[in-house]
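One such given next:
>
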Amino acid sequence: MKVLVVIVPFIIAIALGRFIIPYILFVSYKKRLFDPLDVRKSHQQITPRLGGVAFAPVQSCLFILSVVILYKVNFVALGINTAEIFPMFTLFLCGMVMLFLVGLADDLVSVSYRWKFIIQIFVATLFPLSGLWINDLYGIFLITYLPMWVGVPLTIFAVVLIINAVNLIDGIDGLCSGLIMVGCLFLGVLFTYYDAWLHAIFAFITAGVLVPFFYFNVFGAFKRRRRIFMGDTGSLTLGYAIAFLSISFAMNNKDIKPFSEGAIVTAFSTLIVPVFDVSRVLFVRWREKQPLFKADRNHLHHKFLRSGMSHRNAMISILLLALFFCLFNLFAVQYISNNIVVLCDVVLWIGFLLVWNIVESRKKKERAQKMQFLNQ
C-alpha cells in the first residue's frame, strides 16, 4: 500500500495538467500568443508555446500539499532528517520559481541569452547552498570523495549544462517532455525502492503533469487548436527539476537514500542522450569555428529527420535510445565497475553516431540521385 504515496500524486498531476492546458490554449489563441515561424522550425502553423506554464505551479503546489498531508496522516514512516532535506527542496522550489518567471518572460517578450545564462548560474548555486552537491564520483577516474571546493563548482556546471541540454533538445513534438517523463519515472521508481519518499513524490508529480502535455503536443496536431508547445517556461524548469533529482540520487548522503555503488552512473544515465547530444553539437560548432550558441540543425533529432524518419518515429527512436541507456546502466553497475560502464556508454554513443552518419549519408545520396533523375 505504500506505493499509493506516489501513485495518488501522479494521478492528480495528470488530472490537473489535463484541466489546465485547455485553458492555456484558450488564452493563447485569445491573445494571439504563438510560437514565431522561421526556417529552423519544424512546424509551419501558428502554435501556442505556453504549455510549460502548467508545469512548475502543479509541481510545486501539489508536492507541498502531498508532503503536508503525508506528515499529517502519517501514512508512511518517512524517517527523514528534515533539517537536511527540507532546505534542499525549499531552495530548489525558489530556483524553480525564478526559472519559471524568466522562461515566461522569454516566451512572451524575449530575454537575452546572457541574462538567462546568469539566472541559470544563480539558481544552480542554490543547490550547494542548500547542502546538495556532487560529493562522490564513486570510483570514476579512480576518484571517490570530492572536497567541497571541487564538488560545488562541478555541481553548478552540471546544473547549467543539464538545463541547456534539455532546453536545446526541445526540437520536435514530444521529445523533451518524453525524455523528462522517462527520466522522472526511472528515478521515481529508484527513489521509491530506497524509501526516499519526498524525492519519489516529486519525480512522479513531474512525470504526471507531463502526460497530458505530451498528448496535446504530439496528438494535438490532428485536432484543430489543440496543439501546444512548452516554450522556455517548460524546458528551463524541467531541466532544473531533472538536474535536482539526478544530483540528489548521485549524492552520497544517507539522509537522502542509502549508499549504492553505482548511484552516480545510474542517476545521470537519464541524461545521457541530451547531454551527449549538446556536447557533440558544441564540439562541431567549435571545430568549424561557428558561434557556440548559434542555433543550427545539427541535433540528434535533425539527423533522424534528414535520414527520412517522420517526426513521430524520430521522437520514439530517441526515447527508446534514452530508455536503453537507463536500463543498461541500471543492470551493468551491478556487475561491472563504474569506469567500464561509463566507457561503454561513450563507445555505444560514438558507435551509434558513426552508424547513423552512414545511414544519413546514404539517404542524402539517394535523394540527390532521385532529384538528378527527375531533372533529366
